[in-house]
Amino acid sequence: MNPLQYCPEFVEGSPPVASANGGSSSCSLLDNSVKVYPETELVEVEGSHSSTFSTLLSIYQKFSSTNNSNGRSLKLFFLFITGFIVYNESNAQTKQTQSANQIWLGYFNQTRFNNKWGLWADVHLRTKEDFVSDLSQGILRLGLTYYLADDLKLTAGYAYVNHFPAENHKNISQPEHRPWQQLQWHTRYPKLRLMQWFRLEERYRRKILNDDKLDGGYNFNFRARYNFFSQFPLSKKSFQPRTFSFVVNDEVHINFGKQIINNYFDQNRFFVGFAYHANKHDNFQFGYMNVFQQLAAGNRYRSNQVARLFYFHNLDLRH
To answer: Which of 45, 71, 162, 309 shows the smallest number of beta carbons within 10 Å?
Structure first.
């Protein structure tokens, strides 16, 4: 017996309707569902949920004639669980996940000119796959920083992004122009350092005509980013030169704008690793990062395993 023949409302989402004799209409709906799915057959294969369906159906049959509160609760539980499995199975059949191994190199500089003004600069180079095979992206970002306080600052600037040849532009690079604004703040404790920022980006990505030629105009969307960075010392001399600390960092990216249809969630970057404090202001961070990204199609995802190597260089010209 095809388990889906028992209840089309699991798939269509319609609520149970009372039958003519005053009882539950679940069975009649289950019987009539043969007309909705006349060709459906489920075969038990490794990884399928048909055995789970069979178990749940046997529970349903056992309590379908029970009119007490326990029976009704179990029937509702059965409907909920089966609907949940159908939903997840339908998503699993359509979701596609790609994966790649990459290296991300980055240099960050924050230079403070006086009590109120400073400069932000960072440069990135990222490989495409197999850690060292080809390049995926290069970024140059500049910004002007205004210090509201020593640990609270506003930055606005511009980034140029080069997307090296990829799936839909195999022989050319795609340029992107990215104005950005950011609020950043630091929290310092003897045994813990925290850094957070909210960043807003306006992304202008050049349109692509084919694998060999760029088109006129740009695709545009906004992207909001929230970054949470935490650092824990690994020696008694907390955060002092020539010591190490443990780093946990997560950053979530959210798309919005008229051209965003399916992928409002853009990506999440989770990093765990170590920092070596070269001096009181500079540190070198290295470790593992997972980048989980939803692509524009909505049902396609990318999960990248990344070796991340960043150097943070801070200058204070007031002294």
So the answer is: 45
